[in-house]
Amino acid sequence: MSTSAVSIWVVSSETRSERRYDLHLTVEQLKKKLESVTGISMDSQSITLHAQGTEEDESAQALAILHDDSKQLGFYNIRDWQVLKVKDTNPTSASLSGQYTDVSRVQKFEISSEEYATRSDSILAYKQAHKIGRFAPPLQSVEPEEPKTEIPLGSRCEVDTGESELKKRGTVRFVGPTKFAKGLWVGVEYDEPLGKNDGSVQGERYFTARQSYGGFVRLDRIRVGDFPMEDITMDDDEM
Predict the structure, then answer these.
(1) Contact, 8 vs 48, CB < 8 A?
(2) 3-state class of 222 per DSSP?
(3) Band (144; pLDDT cuts 50, 70, 90)
(4) CB-based contacts of 20, cutoff 8 Å, min separation 6
(5) DSSP characters for 88-145?
(6) Which of 41, 63, 152, 231 is the most exposed, fewest CB within 10 Å of its CB?
């Protein structure tokens, strides 16, 4: 199915863009449109048609030269995604001298650091006013508060072992911070030798118990209440 318009690449020394043009346009009408696209005066345009995919190939051979301003684009059998290369024939043109892309030619606004610091409409002034970045107040380290506990020494307790069949009961002998770990610890003298120490850890004594009858647990693992000593008397059939 024939179409009256094609999508093509337009390439010049300063530009590269995708365009769609009606094949009924004359070369003269095309040049008027390309003047705003490339910045090259229509009187100084030299337009050549190249194969698809040659946008970056400066040595690509031209399929046609669009030199007759009265001819329509369809005369040159232009296909979708072929390339129109537009060259500036004026040696004094701004496009050839790089005035469109040479940023070194642009006059820059300069201001001293001292003058900039006195301005009220600057980013620096905004940061100072809103205490942002290096103007923000120093963060104060907040030590986490120790959880409060009201476990009286001498209270009977039961320690959660994570095993439903094993209950470790004893008496609270110590509540407070320790040197072996951060936070609050509860020292328990167990009713049975189910502990790990005698109330001392790493040479520091916190309470006194028989060896293997002492231990330390976190607050969330202990329940305080009426936990009497369990009868561990063996039956006649036990040894």
Answers:
(1) no
(2) strand
(3) low
(4) 5, 6, 7, 8
(5) E--TT-HHHHTTTT-GGGSPPP---HHHHHH-SSSHHHHHHHHT-GGGSPPPPP-PPP
(6) 231
The pTM of this model reads 0.42
Amino acid identity of residue 14, one-letter, is E
pLDDT band of residue 142 (cuts 50, 70, 90) is low
CA atoms of 96 and 12, how far apart (whole Å): 10
What φ, ψ does residue 234 adopt, rounded to 5°? -80, 145
Scan for tokens 């072929």, then name that residue: 82
Q: For residue 138, which phi and psi values (nearest 5 degrees)?
A: -65, 140
How far is residue 107's CA from residue 109's CA, in Å, rounded to a whole number? Answer: 7
